[in-house]
Specification:
Blueprint: E1 7-13, H1 20-28, E2 32-37, H2 42-51, H3 55-58, H4 88-94, E3 98-102, H5 105-112, H6 124-127, H7 135-138, H8 146-153, H9 157-175, E4 182-188, H10 190-201, H11 208-224, E5 233-238, H12 253-256, E6 257-264, E7 276-278, H13 282-289, E8 312-317, E9 329-339, E10 342-352, E11 357-365, E12 371-377, H14 385-398
Parallel strand pairs: 1-4, 1-5, 2-7, 3-4
Antiparallel strand pairs: 2-6, 5-6, 8-9, 9-10, 10-11, 11-12
Length: 403
Amino acid sequence: MNNNKIKIYCIFFDTMPLVKEIIQFAELNKMQLLLQVGNCFTISSLTSMFTAKMPSDLLDKGIGSRTLRRYRNKEDRKIYVPWNEEYITSKLSKYGWNIHIHNFPPLAIHIYGDTYTDSFYGGYEKRYDKFKKNDEKKKKLNHLDPLMGRILFGNTTKSHEWYNKEYNFIRSIQDLNSNCNNFYFTEYEHWHSFPSYYKIERKKVIDKYKIKPKAIKRTINLMSQWNVNEPNSFFWFFSDHGNPADITSIPNTKGYMSWVLLKDNAENPIKVKTKIISIKDFLPTILKKNNYDYKSTKESMPIDEIDDKNRIFFVEDGRSRINKRESTSFVACTVVEWEGKNPVKILQVSYFKVKNRFEYGLNLLNNNGVSKKYIKLKKENVRYKEIFILLKKELRNRFKYVP
């Protein structure tokens, strides 16, 4: 075990696309830019990230947007999920790590069974004191909250207070000398919030295309507050899924492809061989980094062990407009064409459980890994027929719901 105390900074940018400013930030700060195959909504993606498992591995029929409500305790109103011990945070806690969750109540629900975080003015519960109608109003997610949008994009005293508070928080934890290992999870949701803010404020004729650059600018500004060269630190900046407006009942790379910026300043820094990873690789990567026992599989492995260009990735999704409590779609995909180290074509076989239907498709990416186009194909396609057969077989073997 590494005797040097390490800080892991896991910084989450909800729904943030891989824009050129993110790429430039990575180059400027000498961070490794990786493409990431995840799921298609936040709870599902973070569950896989923190457990190295698919949602349907943890719960029969998978996880939908409202699945966790079934685990709410009637007495204290907290949520206790039965797979809590599977989380990377639980595993690190057993080794004596301090775990810190900042700005993201839904993750605090997963890990602590509670909604309290240290974000906003006194925390999550105080932030919702204004909503007195019922308990559900208090539990609204951040990006649907009008207060959130006004603070992130406004030019008010409260907006400035929030940003100054956030800057001070970043400096305080990076300046902290600790005799323990620390895992920090921090979330920002500028991209996810700007459409909601536009709808709320459009009576003032706010142009959503002006807010979009502001979301990028303020995100990069927050990124820049972090000293990514801090000694004995490990940075994992990431997004979790694509634009919800682009995610269909059968998802493609516009829904399940995201990104990671990695910088390892600790002893024996990770050397990554590939440009594309699975979101489930996070847990074994962290465990291996700290010389703890870990399980490596074809689906989930430390990122410095990935060297298979023919790796098959799996995706699981549950569209809330279809079913709020179960997974509805399953995907097996693989890269079929590269330009240097960059994947530019990803083939996929998908199954839509609701209509008992398979779909075969090809995703085209640009040189940076950003999705350009999804093309539906026939399973008899001459060029990809054998790969389609393999992917369909793997999909059936992986998920019991796929006939």
